[in-house]
Amino acid sequence: MTPVKTTTTPHAPTAVPAARTRAPGTARGPRRRPGLLRRTALPYVLLLPALALEVLVHLLPIVMGVLMSFKELTQFHLRDWGAAPWRGLGNFTAVLDPGAPAGEALLRSFLTTCLFTVASVGLCWLLGTAAAVFLQEAFRGRALLRALFLVPYALPVYAAVITWAFMFQRDDGLVNHVLHDQLGLTGSPPFWLLGDNSFWALLVVSVWKGWPFAFLVVMAGLQNVPRELYEAGALDGAGTWRQIRAITLPSLRPVNQVLVLVLFLWTFNDFNTPFVLFGKAAPEAADLVSVHIHQSSFATWNFGAGAAMSVLLLCFLLLVTGVYLFLTSRGRKAADA
Amino acid sequence: MPSPPARRDTARRSPTAAPRSFLWSRRIFLTLLSGFVLLPVYVMVSSSLKPLQDVSGAFRWMPSELTLRPYADIWKTVPLAKYFVNSLVVAGAATVCSVVVAVFAAYAVSRYRFRGKRLFTVSVLSTQMFPGILFLLPLFLMFVHIGNATGVALFGSRGGLILTYLTFSLPFSVWMLIGYLDSVPRELDEAALVDGCGPLRALFLVVVPAAAPGIVAVAVYAFMTAWGEVLFASVMTNDTTRTLAVGLQGYSTQNDVYWNQVMAASLVVSVPVVAGFLLLQRYLVTGLTAGAVK
């Protein structure tokens, strides 16, 4: 994802020429500067805290997680997980077998998550981009709207989701009051947090919470579109709509490449929203993978199977990210050439 | 709110006047979107000012009477003050540590050429894609083990949570700060080095002040991340270290929910972050522009 960009262009536009001319000679060779030893050691010393923390909190647990996925790990072995018996690929075959209950549940949860992610990311991107484009030009109230639109992003997830949970209550919520009592659209007030409707409830909350991030990033991206492009477009007789289609949207390509990927990963892994909206056990129609793994690990205390599902999830995300970056980067190179 | 200074952000698009169809689409779209965004905010604010009978029956748009009772009651119904202090300590400490660590790392990447630089940025950023659920349990077991082996209580303590949260915001913070430090002219700290400053003094006396907006943006981001996290807080805290994320959720899933109090509590815990965010959002946008979107 992002590292591709940050590492290939590690300098701000102004610094690029200087860095380029220096780069080939000094990439490996010594620098003609005083204090050579300190200089070569210093960057590593500066990186050490960040590295140590990442290793301790991310890398080690992930290695442990992968090991655990090959073990028969239940509550009896939690005290000393290293002593738990090996199970080979047993956990994986169990959760991947669509004929068995565990496998079937995982497959359904996975498909639900895919559908949910595509819908949520699409809507978030659409709303964010439209809002950013409409707020590009100055008009009265623009600053106010911009601040307002960022409120869902700034609110703590649980505070926002709890409010939505209240609105979706069957008997005392706002949604049923409007749909049933005021508009009379439904025969009896539906349940939103149980059954099939829960998918839509989750989607609404997720989009409400997620679109401001897209808005923020696109807005930042729009500031880098050179003004000359618009002037040239206007000279050629392009109106506002045409300028948006021919200048604004294509200029957003590099931003979108990163944005869509980040939105995808966050939404696919989202745990907080369904967990706060539904509690520990989500209804089937809104059983996202993270909640599913959490629930099946802690309900059955079968942590080996939970770890196996997590590893599968990680493999899937790596695969999608790899393919996505390959396709979009190739597309971009072709477009640039 | 005053309209923004015309010179800076006016009409980056058409120097020609926008057509009516554009103006009307904009008006309609922005009105609908504002309604969507404001609806829960209105529910939260209005319900928090209602007496109990208004929220335990069909929904009412307007309160039958305005009352501040829920704001007084929340501190008694649940130990909200304790959760609040826990969240404040955890999020505050995680933010400070995360920013300091991120500044060091970003400075190294931005100013020095060294082996493994690319590997570092790629691997740090790729931790962003790991599902939290994958390392929740191993981390939990690891903290328990470290506790048994060394007596350092990480599991159930604020320390463990601080350690965890600080690494959550770290990748994105480093990434944003690299971009931000890159936009601070090298000549500034090179001049300081020539004047006899050590690299660390140059960092703190010259680079950090010049990159202050970016650092502020990163701090806001780190604080929000820690303040809003639910998954790890639900597993790694106990009764004395419970944070708002878990406490509030328990509050809203009781059998008999006092929705007016829950809404008041939600509002109270949101105010610090929303106020901070809105005050500093300009920096966050600048920080994103410099760092993320290049």
UniProtKB/TrEMBL annotation, chain A:
Region (Disordered): 1-33
Any one GO BP annotation for this protein: transmembrane transport
Regions that span the bilayer: 41-70, 110-135, 147-167, 199-222, 251-268, 303-327
Cellular component terms (Gene Ontology): plasma membrane
Pfam families: BPD_transp_1 (PF00528)
ATP-binding in keyword set: no
Main location as per UniProt: membrane
Low complexity bias spans: 1-28
Positions of the ABC transmembrane type-1 domain: 110-324
Keywords: Cell membrane, Membrane, Transmembrane, Transmembrane helix, Transport
Compartmental location: Cell membrane
Cited Gene3D superfamilies: MetI-like
Signal peptide: none
Protein's membrane topology: Multi-pass membrane protein
Family named by the database record: Belongs to the binding-protein-dependent transport system permease family.
PANTHER family: ABC TRANSPORTER PERMEASE PROTEIN, INNER MEMBRANE ABC TRANSPORTER PERMEASE PROTEIN YCJO
UniProt name for this protein: ABC transporter permease
UniProtKB/TrEMBL annotation, chain B:
Superkingdom to which the source organism belongs: Bacteria
Name of the protein in its database record: ABC transporter permease
GO cellular component terms attached to this protein's record: plasma membrane
GO biological process: transmembrane transport
Membrane topology designation: Multi-pass membrane protein
ABC transmembrane type-1 domain span: 84-280
Transmembrane segments: 28-45, 83-109, 130-156, 162-181, 202-224, 258-280
Location of this chain's protein in the cell: Cell membrane
Cited SUPFAM superfamilies: MetI-like (SSF161098)
Stored PROSITE patterns: ABC_TM1 (PS50928)
Stated family: Belongs to the binding-protein-dependent transport system permease family.
Keyword terms, alphabetized: Cell membrane, Membrane, Transmembrane, Transmembrane helix, Transport
